[in-house]
């Protein structure tokens, strides 16, 4: 076990010594501060038009909108379920006197920071594609493979490092978003509400943020794993980045088309955007169902990669 | 000296139904520098790759220090240090960070040991700099350092003098002999510089088309010296010498004759030739080098 930890330390050291890792981190920070700055400018110009309504009026408006949606939708449909949930939550806010997160308030902006996960997915794909393929492209794999560490350990020390990097860069996003929000936007208290189908529960605001981050992490892990597996199978980082990026862009329109079919729910790409469970799921399944489908696919990918990596000769 | 550290037993490698390495048997001994010689594509690197576990043999086994590479990989490989082809290191990191990296993959390598190896290979002044600023010779030294870190019993060096300047090569040679003798390490050197192998190694194995066709000790080679007499009448000179010295083997050239004799005999031969009125323009020692032998054995054939 000690030797595995050392392997992960090695991988982490190599990752941190690469310039590209730092460039990605700096791009993320600049993007957060830049886009939050633009948001602040935008919200300060928007205030006059929406300022007339009170938050109670807006909640009432929301209830009316969803009531209309509910009456039109089939009782078994996703739209119907979503409308019921939204009505329950808005009603609870009115009853308890809990203000919703106002546009341009601290917590509202914090929650939009999870949109930066599209950037994180890109960075994790880049890291996961290269972490093993670079060793083959540069020939350094030979010096790794002739040490008393089995290939399994080598492979998984790299995979663990990709996962650690995903968590680290997500934390960097969280911290820089917190700092940027504190600088740009007024702080106000907010209570987050959830609906489990029967009752509403209250949560501290930070839970709301962590939940959206955690949900977004699912896609990071899925795309990171795909990139890693392709990198390990083809031993080329460019190919792995290319294919995985293509998948991350092209599957959304494809799934839009396929979602109406019953078998769509067995496809990985109906589930990897796990954040959909926070608003409206793509296909009518529970979060647990999505996690199981994702898990099965990831296991298949790992088996493919593992058998290929262990068996093949290293001739570079 | 007779204790064998490495044993290759019937090592074979087939790639796509074609046999690349044919049932190779070889014993390498403690404190010995063994030269691995062969034309390009003969299977040197493939054999080395099987010895370090980069490739799986189709048949046969590699035994190092009494344990089998195939059955007890981690223990066996921990006794091996190697540079396979070019020493490809992480050029975006410093030399020192590279060594830290490799030291973490073995048990019990201290900072002092790293420092010691850095001094041994003569990189102390530049070890903190990024590898991308290193010359090929310095990379070669760093490659050697990473191979030596864990005090291996068996050291494999593929083309080790590539990129070293003449002074560096001399130093390297002395250093190899030293670790072989003092630490009882068995060293396998493959090189295309045949004269290098000759100066560095105790024994040489010649491989061709995946078969080990000859193993000889280098000392024997060096004793077999040849002298070339440049003369005006080679045919007559041969007759004259054959009359005076029985059983001598003389080759005639266009303007010369070649005889395999020791240095002490040269004046006598010269005297006979001069007395018989043959004009001797020059006498030259054309020591039969390993290169000649190598070309003779492999028929001068080159692949690729």
From TrEMBL, chain A:
Q: Which UniProt keywords apply?
A: Membrane, Transmembrane, Transmembrane helix
Determine if Membrane is one of this entry's keywords: yes
Q: Which residues cross the membrane?
A: 21-39, 116-134, 155-185, 205-231, 238-258, 288-309
Q: Name one Pfam family in it.
A: ABC2_membrane_4
Record flagged with keyword Cell inner membrane: no
What is the protein's name according to its record?
ABC transporter permease
Originating species? Pontibacillus salipaludis
| Gene name of this polypeptide | yhcI
Automatic annotation (TrEMBL), chain B:
Q: Which UniProt keywords apply?
A: ATP-binding, Nucleotide-binding, Transport
Top-level taxon: Bacteria
> Pfam families this protein is in?
ABC_tran
PROSITE patterns given for it? Answer: ABC_TRANSPORTER_1 (PS00211), ABC_TRANSPORTER_2 (PS50893)
**UniProt domain ABC transporter: residue ranges:** 6-234
Q: What InterPro entries does the record tag this protein with? A: AAA+_ATPase (IPR003593), ABC_transporter-like_ATP-bd (IPR003439), ABC_transporter-like_CS (IPR017871), P-loop_NTPase (IPR027417)
One annotated GO molecular function: ATP binding
Keyword tRNA-binding on entry: no
PANTHER family found in the cross-reference section? ABC TRANSPORTER, ATP-BINDING PROTEIN
Family that this chain belongs to: Belongs to the ABC transporter superfamily.
| The name this protein goes by in its record | ABC transporter ATP-binding protein YhcH
List the lineage, top down. Answer: Bacteria, Bacillati, Bacillota, Bacilli, Bacillales
